Amino acid sequence: RRLACGDVEGRLEAIFGRVRAVQAKSGRFDMLLCVGNFFGSASEEEWAEYRTGAKKAPIPTYVLGANNQDTLSYFPDVSGCELAENITYLGRRGVFTGCSGLLVAYLSGTEAQEQPAPAHSFSTKDVEELKTSLLSTPNFRGVDILLTSPWPRDVGTFGNSAGEIDTKKCGSKLVSDLAASLKPRYHFAALEKAYYERLPYRNHMVLQGTPQHVTRFIALADVGNTSKKKYLYAFSIVPMSSMDPVELVKQPQDVTENPYRKLRKEAPKAKAEEEPACQFFFDLNKHQGKKRPSDGKEGGNSQPKQAKKAPQPTGPCWFCLASPEVEKHLVVSIGTHCYLALAKGGLLPDHVLILPIGHYQSVVDLSAEVLEEVTKYKAALKEFFRSKGKRYVLFERNYRSQHLQLQVIPVPLDRCTSEDIKESFITQAQEQQIELLEIPEHSDITQVAQPGTPYFYVELDTGEKLFHRIRGRFPLQFGRAVLASGALLALPQRADWRQCAAPRPEEAAQARAFRRDFQPFDFSLRD
């Protein structure tokens, strides 16, 4: 049983008095871990009583080093030392292992803003050396606890709100990198005078690897703060080395995506994409992460696949091009197997649909030649929208629809990045208990969904994709609502297409304008 606390700032009587009260009520704890500023500008009087032995900390207390020039003098040995009885300075950076096998990694100071790094700061070299010392350990799975003073930058991504703290601006990118690499089960930080217990996050990519333990990030407020924000955190932890592997990797219901996913994606990639001889399919009906090679012999049938024929609709279809139901004034391009049409009640005037001419329900039902032309239209739309300073977001909802509609909506390049778009989709999905997973870059939608499977998927013009297998009810306007939200297009009043339908002459004029602008990029006029 351990305790962790935020910035003490020299208030030794306050923190140790609180520890004694907690132990009197709940029993003995093994140690106190202090992050943030242990000493303050007016620490000397209280500290002298502990330094001289007149007073003693009630339990073994471990502290991080200085975060500013003013308190450097309290830490005489950069490699760590005993400051007083029961109070130990851990050192600049390193790892210590408790007698129970608990593995604790620590990094003192704040991120250096200049070189050479001041004595109260850490540099890229410090972080790399700490990472190397652990990652080079055989069978390294992570650490039990990580102690840093600064928050990790972007820790709130995909998570619950951190209140008034903007996690995209505060904290350290180097600490984010450290946390992403060391995969702590608990990560404690301070300095922001705020309490924030983030939802636990994954340390593996779903569908791409075996499950790993989750991380819980906890930021603690300053001791004795007048706002009564939480500064002391009690927790029980069994060392990773002593845990049953199955118990260790259990995923809580409120687990989120890893907030440092972008950092991990920038790491050297595996060579899976360089091995075209073996294609992998991910079977969502079986254990996650299992792969089955596609060798043309699935189900014992080794006959080559026949080209798919478009099935006939069971009733009137609004999107089969030959159907009298089609609103042909919205059509802006016609290829051999597909066509483009402006969306009725579009989110934007250039909101466009890619549709098969024949009757197909979803992308996974398409024949090879239709899929090839869909790909050509996506490439043409990417080039077209990029020429206008935009990137497109494409989504498909194969649920309560009978004809494939690939919704393509442009977003200004200067408004948000591809990571912002993915974060918005994943965050809003989590709010509605929808599990939206990133598909591995070397696979596509046909590899994760079988024909007839209800699903929702998002694709960016970078090729990045998110997928949700629909197992129950699903909000019909979800994709459009995410894009209309304040985080992206900020058009919440246009989230429902039925509220956006324009008179037919206005629709026809918009279609003519789009057709004219798209003409230089329209391969169907050249083929």
From TrEMBL:
Gene encoding the protein: Cwf19l1
Entries under Gene3D superfamilies matching the protein: HIT-like
One Gene Ontology biological process: mRNA splicing, via spliceosome
One GO CC annotation: post-mRNA release spliceosomal complex
Recorded GO MF terms: RNA lariat debranching enzyme activator activity
Family annotation (InterPro entries): Cwf19-like, Cwf19-like_C_dom-1, Cwf19-like_C_dom-2, HIT-like_sf
UniProt-annotated stretches for the region Disordered: 287-313
Record protein name field: CWF19-like protein 1
Residues of the Cwf19-like protein C-terminal domain: 432-523
Any Pfam family hit: CwfJ_C_1
